[in-house]
Amino acid sequence: MVRRFIIYDTISGLLDENGFNDGVKPPSYVRWAASMTLKMTSDPENAGQVFRPFVVIKYKERNVMDLS
Q1: What is the pLDDT of residue 42?
Q2: Which one-letter DSSP state was computed for residue 42?
Q3: What pLDDT, in 10s, does the model give residues 12-48?
């Protein structure tokens, strides 16, 4: 059971299609995980068993110009 998630992200904030490859223009937006919750529930059909846990992540974003 492997999943990926990010803590912060500057790559999706690039507005230029080749911005990541060029590395010239900085991102326009920065996104980060504002809250993370691990959800686990028990299986009512099987005593002592739990369903597969999952992470609920809520992201926030900020314009890079607002961070200066």
Answers
A1: 92
A2: B
A3: 666 666 655 665 667 777 888 888 899 999 999 998 8
End-to-end CA distance of the chain: 40
Question: Is residue 68 within 8 Å of residue 37, measured between CB atoms?
Answer: no
Residues in the chain: 68
Q: Which of 5-9, 29-33, 58-62, 63-67 has the highest mean pLDDT?
A: 58-62
Round to whole Å and give the CA distance between 27 and 8.
12
Tokens 């507005």 map to which residue? 15
CA count, 13 A, side-chain hemisphere, 1: 5
